[in-house]
Design goal:
This protein has 234 residues and is mainly alpha-helical. Helix content is 79%, strand content 0%.
């Protein structure tokens, strides 16, 4: 897994994807930080984190679009699949490479915290709770993106489908508001990524939500392994 991980980290920077992702992430998060924290006169970063859900939704597909689709397009996937390495090692190596870059991007909030420390007292409990919430949200979304990347050989197709799927998950709350059947309404609401994330930004730590995100990450990594397994023996 280590070799796959190092290769993918290097590929992010040689391809320029890392620079584009980090630049856009820092730019947009900086805008939210300035408008929703600095201009408000408060040192609580929760409003900024609430808005950053949208950043994560649209930028994570940039991280995941090439991870497996490029291997398939360049016909390097067969060499990878026949190598003496487990499929889980392949998937997790790529997955953790994307997650590492996401963590690097997300950690800009600690720079913002240092800026706020000069203006007042930083609400560290809130900041760390929100940081953790975004981390597990990103972990789940990246797993979904890697899975979608395994289904196509076109990077742009992978990115677009991932954006559409993640945006659809974001719309779960709007869908539930238009339903009349309470049973179906509660079932769909229980799958809402946005509601669970917003709870964290409001200071609510819900272990069920943590398990939901982590289970989603595991489940979609498992699906990706199954796709590669079928391709290996297909």
């Amino acid at each position: 897994m280590g070799a796959i991980y190092r290769r993918e980290i290097g590929a992010y920077f040689t391809s320029g994807v890392a620079y584009v992702f980090l630049t856009v992430f820092y730019l947009l998060s900086g805008v939210f930080f300035y408008n929703q924290v600095l201009l408000s006169g408060y040192t609580d970063t929760s409003p900024m984190f609430s808005s950053m859900f949208i950043i994560v939704l649209f930028l994570i597909p940039i991280l995941t679009m090439r991870l497996l689709s490029e291997e398939k397009k360049n016909r390097t996937d067969q060499g990878l699949l026949t190598a003496p390495i487990s499929l889980w090692s392949i998937v997790l190596g790529k997955y953790f490479a994307a997650l590492t870059l996401f963590i690097v991007a997300e950690s800009i909030v600690f720079v913002y915290a240092m800026i706020l420390s000069y203006l007042g007292t930083v609400v560290w409990a809130s900041l760390l709770g929100n940081y953790f919430a975004m981390l597990i949200l990103g972990a789940a979304f990246i797993a979904i993106g890697v899975f979608i990347s395994s289904l196509t050989e076109n990077q742009m197709t992978s990115a677009v489908i991932s954006m559409v799927v993640l945006f659809f998950l974001y719309l779960f709350d709007s869908i539930t508001n238009n339903l009349q059947n309470e049973t179906i309404k509660k079932m769909i609401a229980s799958l809402s990524f946005y509601t669970k994330y917003i709870e964290f930004t409001q200071g609510v730590f819900n272990l069920t939500s943590v398990l939901f995100y982590l289970s989603t990450a595991f489940l979609f990594n498992f699906f990706t392994v199954r796709v590669l397994e079928k391709r290996r023996w297909g």
